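Quick one, tokens below:
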């Protein structure tokens, strides 16, 4: 196969940040995707529908000439009540609430410390059919970083799903075989997003022959068997798994530092990367559902009308993206990919 035309995909897990960086990175996303679930963990987290509407307008101001629709989310917080959750359920802009355990990733200090104190909110979300998106990692400092996803699933997520079986849940950016098994084994309300980095890399790619700061993300890259389990899930054809890049821009000097930021910027060439992975697995015919159908079905959205074309043609990813006098290093910078994308 040398050409693939599919419905324009949606990115169901994206970080756009704010200010100057937003203006630059959103243009990369709109070339690849028609819509995106936008994460709420800004420096001042998006905790209410009103804040989400303001952030939506900021994004739209920078996409007024682009065919792109941001799908907003709220940052899970203990101030959520029945009135706010009802507003979410009735909003045409806000589509889910994202739970971060406190301190597990960028701008998550205001996250949750005690999951058991959140059950009244989960009950309301289940009642109003508001999806719960979960960064599924334990913030217990005594838990090894490579086991934090598994431990969170065992200690917390299994209980949440057991107590609220009709609550729609997305386990975001799964990174372990245990997460794959949990999603497969759970009821028809539990789904997962899959990133390009967790399909492409394991911890050897991060740590062997010197630390690779631009491969550092959270959840952290894990073992080879974890990566292979995620590849199998993505290419299985199961509607429980769909595309979410977790593209997360940080400036080069923030990544290449004594305490480098977690996040990989993949929005520049995400669909080319997914196409390469699915081709390797002889599963190109399953790419459209994974990237363009299963996610929109979960969020009860209509299919996109536009198409994209992927052509079997080598191209080189640029070394850097300039944002003023700063730089973002994209995933696979200066590497050559075997697929190239063009909009129809």
């Amino acid at each position: 196969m040398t050409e693939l035309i599919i419905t324009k995909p949606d990115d169901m897990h994206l970080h756009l940040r704010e200010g100057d960086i937003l203006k630059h990175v959103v243009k990369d996303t709109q070339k690849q995707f028609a819509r995106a679930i936008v994460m709420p963990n800004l420096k001042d987290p998006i905790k209410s529908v009103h804040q989400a509407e303001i952030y939506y307008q900021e994004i739209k101001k920078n996409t007024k000439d682009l065919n792109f629709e941001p799908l907003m989310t709220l940052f899970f917080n203990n101030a959520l009540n029945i009135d706010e959750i009802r507003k979410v359920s009735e909003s045409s802009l806000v589509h889910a609430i994202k739970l971060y355990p406190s301190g597990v990733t960028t701008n998550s200090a205001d996250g949750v410390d005690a999951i058991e104190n959140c059950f009244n909110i989960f009950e309301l979300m289940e009642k109003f059919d508001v999806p719960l998106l979960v960064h599924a990692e334990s913030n217990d400092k005594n838990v090894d970083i490579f086991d934090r996803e598994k431990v969170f699933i065992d200690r917390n997520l299994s209980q949440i799903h057991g107590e609220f079986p009709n609550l729609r849940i997305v386990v975001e950016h799964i990174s372990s075989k245990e997460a794959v098994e949990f999603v497969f084994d759970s009821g028809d309300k539990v789904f997962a997003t899959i990133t390009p980095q967790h399909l492409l890399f394991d911890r050897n790619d991060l740590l062997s022959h010197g630390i690779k700061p631009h491969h550092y993300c959270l959840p952290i890259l894990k073992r080879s068997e974890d990566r292979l389990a995620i590849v199998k899930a993505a290419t299985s054809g199961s509607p429980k798994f769909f595309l979410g890049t977790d593209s997360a821009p940080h400036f080069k000097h923030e990544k290449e530092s004594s305490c480098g930021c977690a996040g990989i910027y993949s929005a520049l060439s995400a669909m080319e990367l997914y196409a390469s992975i699915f081709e390797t697995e002889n599963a190109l015919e399953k790419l459209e559902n994974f990237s363009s159908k299963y996610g929109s079905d979960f969020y009860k959205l209509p299919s996109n009308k536009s198409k994209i074309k992927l052509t079997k043609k080598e191209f080189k990813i640029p070394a850097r993206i300039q944002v003023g006098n700063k730089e973002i290093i994209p995933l696979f910078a200066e590497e050559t990919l075997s697929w190239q994308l063009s909009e129809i």
